[in-house]
Amino acid sequence: MASLISRGLCRKAPDQPRLSPLLRLLILTQFAFNIGFFAVLPFLSEHLGQAVGMAGWMVGFVLGLRTFSQQGLFVVGGALADRYGIRPVVLMGCVLRIAGFVWLGSARETWAVIGSVLLIGFAAALFSPAVESEVARQAVLWEESGAGSRTRVLALLTVAGQAGAFVGPLLGALLLSVDFRTVCLVGAGIFVLVLAGHAWLLPQHIPGRGGVKFRGGMGKLLRNRRFLALCCAYGAYLLAYNQLYLALPDEVERATGSQTALAWLFALSSLLVVTAQLPVTRWVGERLTLRRSMVAGLLLIAVGFAVVGAARPAGWTGAAGLLPAAGFVVLLTLGQMLVAPVARAWVPDLAEDGRLGLYTGALSSVSGLIVLIGSSATGTLLDSGLPEAVPWLVLAAVPVAAIGLLPRR
């Protein structure tokens, strides 16, 4: 898989220049990050509920806390990257992720689980906005040079991330036959390799990226209504996407009596992105504005929830019972392909000069807060004893409501 991505990054059309070595490194970085992360995360919900014995609302809270400690603190990592450059921030994030995975593998008390999950999340809050903001900055330079659309570069970042998300769950499912601790230790080992590779390859200084002071940036950001509107709409999308780790495992368990099929559904999602993201981005870029692309993506996600909600009262089990879940994964993934690269491509147009890291981080921080609140509510909703279709139909309303939050221009 890594060699396929590498060849894809090096391949170019006759009229397009090749991506710079820095862009290729950062995009492959996303691939490596997601292998280690997704080897662990898809199986965390079951581990917390079964091995640790947490109630449904607490599992939802911990998953939301993990997302908030990651997405919610992206603004800190982004500001640090603007101030000190991406190299020290990325390396420190890798160190914290290694420590967090090792701790999670042995955690059995609630406080220890929460501590390790916070550490894992904050690690990503350091390295992810540093990588994403620099890819976005390089993508704008790529576009300004006439090489092509910035959205294409950001779509490549999404493809690399999903390729890692494809390999990760399969690796995790294989290791889970030993135990969850082994999964966590292998995930930590992957980040040890990432740390060593980036200590060697990541440049000390990137031309055109100078340090800026912390003071003044947050005030202007909080007055930027168009940017905040984009953040809220993206947060609603992320809350819907987070149901891959909360609502989907519950549906798979109901349909088959185990979570064996969960890894294959994650693989299906990742394979769709790896194979279809670039053609979809190209097709949409020729026909839809940024706003219309996000509207179409949010509507597809809403339909995915509605499919499961409509089928749930039938009580199908076995292979037939997995069909609604598979439909949900496909529609959610198609929606993701429309929403995620476009939202990232929109940020440089709304960000203050020199503070792209801060704005990239804030996009995830606001959405992380939404996920923290929404995940606890979702966990309660799934355990509420309401008619089986109701939780999924309520979740379908979330991306629909987000459409009204999008900036008009």
Automatic annotation (TrEMBL):
It is found in: Cell membrane. InterPro entries: MFS, MFS_dom, MFS_trans_sf, MFS_Transporters. Residues 22-409 form the Major facilitator superfamily (MFS) profile domain. PROSITE patterns: MFS. Coiled coil: none annotated. Gene3D superfamilies: MFS general substrate transporter like domains. This is Major facilitator superfamily (MFS) profile domain-containing protein. It comes from Streptomyces caeruleatus.
